[in-house]
Design a protein that fits this description.
311 residues, homodimer
Chain lengths: 311, 311
């Protein structure tokens, strides 16, 4: 490892990250954001939602590492140092956790779990009949690592799974659609729509009224990607209009979701606190240390982000 | 088809069954339980919870058909005509529905869905961290068609799945245990225990305090088999003692679960109204008609029950 590593994370976890990365990278000074003795000595920045422009003070920065699978929180910085490579965290753990979450939420929507929960709370024995999974169309938007794994798992359980991505993919058991041309047919088949897209200028606000109108009437949506994918102002009107019947949101534009946000008061909207694929910090720190070692050793980097695509 | 068919089902569905079976079995008179002009003409009885002793009035009965996968409601009759074969309904639909239900409930318990639901109801953004599925032991009691399918689906999602059955089974990706000798090791591995056993005198009340004590402390149980498997008086004390943390019950000794039953008031007990594998009546009627045709044609009968085993 060449030079110091600076870390920007929430205050509550900062000391844990300093200690953990120090233990994983012996000999490399790990500096917290507000305690960098020599900015010129910093060669790597490990960041979660750093202050825009803040990375420019490190004149010899060689690499930026996102604490997470998403890098939208990095590229949102208009003063990002030009030409510095960005790494993210991927890995089997994140894929596994997302697969669990998506399968869980799709099954709950498919089996109308909210109706069963309402009946149980009211002490009522009220049966709900649902079609077999094979007659339930599920659409996965975004067929990267997470989306492909979720689509395969749902197909394995017997659902009629459709997938959509920018460029065409092939996944066994999944009907794959691609690009603008394929979006209409994809949406028309998606009684349950799951968003697992990367957040880019092209996908920002993609879950909006115009899209909801192309789904089967009364469809349900699951957003397990980024809050920025949802045009939040369009959601409650779409539920009121019957375009959608339910929404499950693991993410929001502002997190934690503010106390006065209208989503909290709407029982048709289920909210989980960004736990679909929470990185276990131990695993994340290990992956970051390994990635930095590989970077400075000049090895192959599967977690390198393509800045043109933004993921 | 030789002779008349008598049907015993709940009053609300009786006429539907008469019409549907009549359409499926042209030329065969379909009689409702209380409207049989000539009991001696009846050769087949299609029943759900018939009155004990009630089948003895049909002197020429050749076959009894259970409306469902379980036949405990048939064999509970001490005056069942001796030597008359019993058929049940099995089929891909039932297996598929049970697989969906078990995977859903196991994922919800694994990801601590009840804590997330409590936080959401309280408008609180409260993260819950859970281990990966690979570090979660799930035990499936009963490895018949339904149990084997559920075990395989859970293993496919990455869970550490254990199975238990009377005689040893082999299922890829599942650690199989058998008989009394294997029960202790099976239970010790089951953080989430799913009961899919047939109800027989040997399995009646098997989910009792002695069994709960052999599970990892704070385990969760899912009973998707029969109400008779659970020693109901043992459940709330086991939750109070911390032996169990949660229970999901799709079945009860008396169904619908009576309004004054203490399970309704206990938030640690989730109750679903026997919908895990609800037979779609269209599918069930088709299966019954086909089975009766096969029976009277002397063909092979995969749905024939072994009365010695009781399933």
């Amino acid at each position: 490892m060449q030079g110091d590593v600076v870390v920007h994370v929430g205050a509550a976890r900062a000391e844990w990250w300093r200690e953990t990365l120090s233990a994983l990278m012996p000999g490399t000074p790990i500096r917290l954001w507000d305690d960098v003795p020599d900015p010129d000595a910093v060669s790597a920045a490990v960041v979660w939602k750093h202050p825009p422009g803040g990375l420019r003070r490190f004149a010899n920065l060689k690499v930026i590492v996102s604490i997470g699978a998403g890098v939208d929180h990095v590229f949102v910085d208009p003063d990002l140092p030009a030409g510095v490579p960005v790494l993210r965290i991927t890995g089997d753990d994140l894929t596994q956790r997302m697969k669990e979450y998506v399968v869980w939420q799709v099954l709950a929507l498919h089996r109308r779990g909210w109706e069963l929960a309402e009946a149980r709370a009211a002490h009522q024995w009220r049966q709900v009949v649902t079609p077999l999974a094979g007659r339930r169309g599920v659409g996965i938007m975004g067929l990267g690592r997470l989306g492909a794994a979720a689509a395969q798992a749902l197909a394995g359980l017997g659902f009629a799974v459709h997938g959509w991505s920018r460029s065409r993919r092939e996944i066994a058991g999944v009907t794959c659609h691609a690009g603008e041309a394929g979006l209409g047919a994809f949406l028309a088949a998606s009684e349950i729509l799951v968003c697992l897209l990367p957040l880019t200028p092209q996908t920002e606000g993609i879950l909006d009224r115009a899209l909801f109108e192309k789904l089967p009437k009364g469809a349900a949506i699951v957003n397990a990607a980024r809050g920025g994918h949802l045009a939040e102002a369009d959601l409650i009107p779409a539920l009121d209009a019957g375009l959608l019947s339910r929404a499950v949101l693991d993410v929001a534009r502002v997190e934690p979701l503010p106390q006065n946000h209208p989503f909290w008061a709407d029982a048709r909207i289920d909210i989980t606190p960004h736990i679909a694929s929470l990185i276990d910090p131990e695993t994340g720190a290990g992956r970051i240390a390994a990635n930095l070692r590989r970077f400075f050793a000049g090895e192959d980097l599967p977690d390198l982000v393509d800045p043109a695509r933004g993921y």
